[in-house]
Amino acid sequence: MEPMFSPPLHRQRHQFVIDFVKRNKPKKVVDLGCSECILLKKLKFHREVELLVGVDINGTKVRKKMYGLAPISTDYLQPTYDQLRIELYQGSVTHKDARVRGFDLVTSIELIEHLTLADVERFSEVVFGYMTPAAVIVSTPNSDFNPLLPGLAGFRHRDHKFEWTRAEFRSWALKVCLEFGYEVELTGVGQAPSGQQEGVGFCSQIGVFHRLGGRDGCHMSLGDEVEDVFSYTLLYSVNYPSLHDSNILGRVLVSEVLYWAEKLKGKWKEEMTGEGNGAHTLRQPEGGEGCVSERCTEVEEKQTACGAEKRNLVEQCGKGASEDQEEEDEEGFWTNGEKRQDSSTLRRSVSVPLDVLWSCCPKVSALSGSLGNLRRLLMDDPQVKLSQDGAAVLVNDQELDFEEEEEDHNDLGDSGYAELGQRSHTAEQEEDWEANVDLEDAALFTGQ
Fold this sequence. Notes:
Elements: H1 9-24, E1 28-32, H2 38-43, E2 51-56, H3 59-65, H4 73-77, E3 85-90, E4 105-109, H5 117-131, E5 135-141, H6 166-180, E6 182-189, H7 197-200, E7 204-211, E8 233-239, H8 246-275, H9 296-302, H10 323-331, E9 345-353, H11 354-360, H12 362-368, H13 371-379, E10 385-386, E11 392-401, H14 402-412, H15 432-440
Parallel strand pairs: 1-2, 1-4, 2-3, 4-5
Antiparallel strand pairs: 3-8, 5-7, 6-7, 9-11, 10-11
Helix pairs in contact: 8-12, 12-13
């Protein structure tokens, strides 16, 4: 049997909120009656939201699902400049708390029908008079629709204190607007069968309230003394990784620099082994963006050669060096502080100029902002070794056996061995009636 609503009604209500968020791009959103955080889990993917808050009187339900809102591994591996903080509180929507004032959007999905009428008055005062959000979305069952629901006797859920008709909901909404300075659009989700929509309306009726004057038209009827009210209990909070965090920015930048330095070193070595055209230039690596081939001559002229005949982007240093030559090397390529490891071994470093990295790697330039910033950000990182003048990244190439290198020197001749200089009460509760309709697919229209 086909379900009565497709998608199920609770999903249509959530999608209504998501569509609103996509259109209006609120930065601060609070969901009253968040329960098991189903709506929050959907909203966290809309990264225009910078602060996402859930409030529910049932702390047990919140604790049960709150860790599902934590960042996942890809959020840490590929952070963006988007910022998101999530906070979950235990508290009543009839109580005030300064931490949820002045938001761009407040949602109350199938909540107010669980309150007594006296608490509805307090809810109105807290949400519209105290919290003063720019927009509020309130959904509640429409009792005019109830005769179309098969097998329904009484309210849709045993905890409902009332279920308003469309006229009653409209009356409450207009009263709120007059008292607290809002305007409202009445709509809903869950359409009636063909020909009956006008007579009964939507299964869930929705009021979308907008504060008069927009985000700057804050209507304060309760005075400033409420600023110090903190009645909610914080259950969970988390900041998603963002490139606005200097530590995270530094980690991602270093990761990119080391990756591209190794890639550029490998590309140069391929060309030097004869797979290229024999020219000692650094060309654009496969999959890279931008090209630095036109700058290679300029880069070559900036490099210090160990021998007069070995001027290039990458050069071998210290091979069979005398004490004088070693001293000269220290001033040139031995800037990583790793000279001869013992009497028979020598560590080679490849020097990758920062301006080459800057030109080859758009992400490196985007993250650092300028060549000067790039040098400054890398300077104090223990994973990165810079040349003495700070103009190049030093990448370890390999350890060579010094004595074997001497033996092979005559065979190698001037072969070009070289080194490069080196990222509510309760949450939306599924009504008893809805659970039967959506989960058991048992409810059908009977031609009414």
